[in-house]
Structure formats: C-alpha cells, structure tokens
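Sorry to interrupt, but I need a hand with the structure work. Can you supply me with one protein entry, sequence and fold together? No commentary is needed, just the two lines. Leave the record below and I will have a look.
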Amino acid sequence: MADIILTDIQKKPLSFTLPVVGAAGAFAGLFVGTAQGSGLLGIVIGAIVLAGLAYVALEVLGHEKERTFRYAIIVLFLVVGYLYAGLPGLIVGGLFGWFFSWFIYWVGEGRYRATLPPYLTAGQVLWHYAFRVICGAIFVFLITPILVVMPLSFNAENFFTFTPEMLRFDPAGYSLRHYRAFFQSDAWQSALKNSLMIAPAATVLSVTFGTLAAIGLSQPHVPFRRAIMAILISPMIVPLIISAAGMYFFYSRIGLQGTYLGVVLAHAALGIPFVIITVTATLVGFDRSLTRAAANMGANPVTTFFRVQMPLILPGVISGGLFAFITSFDEVVVVLFVGSANQQTLPWQMFTGLREQISPVILAVATILVGVSICLLTVVEILRRRSERLRGMSPG
C-alpha cells in the first residue's frame, strides 16, 4: 500500500500536466484578453504560454530548480504586467505569477493527491476539486458587486465608474469627499438617526418575543407546535411586498400607519423569525434536567430562566438579535409602506437618492453598511462557535 501511495503522488506525465495547466492558462487568458477586446486571442496565448512554462519547469529544469523557477516566473509576470498596464498590471501580474508558479508544480508533481485518500479514483479526485472550484466561483459571483462598490466610494469625481486615475492607482483619483458629504448632510444624518432609533427598538421587541416563543414551542406538551412555528416564521417566507401591503392596510385601520411605533412593530415582526430559529437551534442541545434541578432547589421559573437557562442559550439569543438588527437596519420595502417622511431611514434615503438624484454618496453609505454587516456577522460566527463549545458539540 505504501508503494501505491508513493507512486500515486509522484511526477505526472506531461500528457496529463500540460493540458491541465494549459486549460488554467486559457481561463486566465480569457479574462485578460476580454479586457483588451479579444477573448479568443487571450485564450490561445494563455494556454500556449502556461503549457510552455510547465514543460520547461518539469521537463527541462526538474524538481531541483523549483524555487529558482518560481521566483523567475513571478518576476517575469511582474515585468510583463507592468509593461502592459502599469501599476495595476504589476499587481495582477504578480498574483498570476505567484499562483501559476505554484500550480505547475502542484499538478506536475502530483501534490494534489497528497492530502486525499489513496483509494479515490481519477473521477472522484476531479469532482473533489471541481466542487471547490464551483463553490469558489459562486462566492466570487456573489461578492463581486460588493468589491466593486467599495473602491468606487473613494472616487474623487461624481461618477459611478472607475476613472482613468483610479485605474492607474493615482492618489489624485481617490478621495473621502463622499464620506464627508454623508456626515455633513442634514438629510443623510436625519435618516441615520431614524435608523438608529428604529432598529434597536425593533431588535429588543424581536429578541423578547422571539426568545419566549422559542422556549414555549420547545416544550413537547404545547399543542399545534408545528403550525404555530410556521405562522411565526412566515414573514421570512412570504414575499416582502405582500407583508408590507398587508401591514399598510392593517395599520391604516388601527391608526399606526406613518408612526414611529408602527415602523418599530413592523420591523419587529420581520426580526422575530430570526430569533426563533437561532434560539430554537440553541435549545436543541439544552439539558432540561438543569431546569428541573433548579426547581427542586426551590428556584421559581423566573429565577430558573435568568440564572440557569439564559446563560446557556445566550449565544443564540444574541445571534438572533444581531440578525434582527441587520434586518431592521437594512429594510426599505416595509418602511416605504408603513412609514412617513418623519421615519425616513437610511435605506429609504438611499432608495430616494437613486430614484431622484444620482449621488455617489450612496456608494459611501453602502460601504459603511457593508462594514457594519461584516462586523455583526463576525460576532454571530464567534457566538455560534461559543454556543457549540458550551453544548459540547465541538472541541474547546
């Protein structure tokens, strides 16, 4: 078996390595060629260049000159990138050179097999890496709009496109003017103030009612638990425009339409499902004998909840609260229906800015919101891992 493993991760034949490396070069050449107006030419050149480099690295120089060859490839790509497109080309060329200098030996020396079970067939190995490439491509597709918006928010001009100065990485093409405009504008600051007033209040209501509902629905003796759960999480399933229209007609009849309380209650209704789901997931690993032991020691239900149950489910409660806060802070459809000009939130102001006046300040606000969301989601992930450790589901 040891001989099989050693043989399997040894140098691969050129009939296998060159087409694989050439295909990777063609894929990279597609993007470079498309940017220059000829994708087909980029594919051909990329495939030929990478296949030729792989032949030189594996057949001419061999494994002994790997480090020297890798440095030479990086320098070559840096020089070609700089001569071709200046500083941006230098950066892209350096990244390409680093990746392909590693990729050639990773494929040619059979290192891709080193971390895999030796009994996997060629098709299984192919699917193993193809699946990861597909997932990475989906991730890039989803994250690219954010990566485009963030640098555009530093544009020194009132444009929604990259200027020649930005593409050259000229400092004159970048500025904080849109961020200053956001913090100096009365309209934007009023919208931010409304969001900071509405979102925390809605979060408190969501956490309170959502946690109580999750604890109640976790009891086995509660009748119609599944039906009640379906009703409570329906705001996540029903299209938002339908929920907003229903809230508008209902609040109009009871006098809450266009009021601060109406917007808070509407956002709380949208946030409660997130709290119910996260707290219910936390309660799955909760040891109910702890509450019975507390009751036997004379603790009343309120004391048992705050002293025994709440500390253990707190990560789930905080996670649900953070999701509810993000939902309320970023929501625009419902507030358009149930709010008024006095409750104009930050997303509402962004929507109005896109509809009535195109201002790059929107890009700065979007970047700030992305940063806030990233921070909150990071906290959610930390709390999730802590919850798993507390329940003994992962190593400490």
Q: What stands out?
A: The chain is about 75% helix and 0% strand. The chain has two domains: 2-119, 185-390. The CA atoms of residues 164 and 276 lie 50 Å apart.
